[in-house]
Amino acid sequence: MSDDQQQPATDDAIRGLVTRLARPGPGGRRVIERAAIMAEGSRAPAILDWLAAASWVPEDLPVEASSTGLHGLRGESERGRTRPQVPRRYVSPPA
Q1: Which of 3, 10, 17, 29 has its CA 20 to 30 A from that of 40?
Q2: Distance CA 72, CA 51 (A)
Q3: Whole-angstrom Cα distance, residue 64 to residue 72?
Q4: What CA–CA distance (Å, rounded) separates 1 from 26?
Q5: Which residues span the domain enclosing 37?
Q6: What pTM, to 2 d.p., does this model score?
Q7: What is the C-alpha end-to-end distance of the chain, expressed in Å?
Q8: Count of the separate structural domains present in the chain
Q9: pLDDT of residue 86
Q10: Do the beta carbons of residue 60 and residue 87 sit within 8 Å?
């Protein structure tokens, strides 16, 4: 099994991945895009667990579209469908 397919076994290994994936965010915080985490493949669940334990928080979920306006009726017909809402990024605690 290659290094790309192995789960990081230690806190230090995950911290290194988080350092590599994070970028500067507002207010001196660090931000990691969920897409970057998911691109780590089998390591993603361990990274998400580590972020939660380290007090990183998911960015606010997008607000639901209103049912008014040009495309409002399309939104009404799609409301019956359930799609999981996941955050687009994770934000570090204040430094």
Answers
A1: 29
A2: 37
A3: 11
A4: 38
A5: 3-91
A6: 0.67
A7: 37
A8: 1
A9: 82
A10: yes
Give the length of the chain: 95
Pull the structure tokens for residue 6. 């192995």
Q: How confident is the model at residue 61 (pLDDT cuts 50, 70, 90)?
A: low
Residue in the block written with tokens 């780590």: 40
Taking residue 87's Cβ as centre, other Cβ atoms within 10 Å add up to: 14
Q: Structure tokens of 69?
A: 């306006």
Calculate the alpha carbon distances from 26 to 83, 86, 92 in Å: 29, 21, 10
Six-digit token pair at 39? 């691109």
Sign of the torsion formed by the C-alpha atoms of 49, 50, 54 and 55: negative
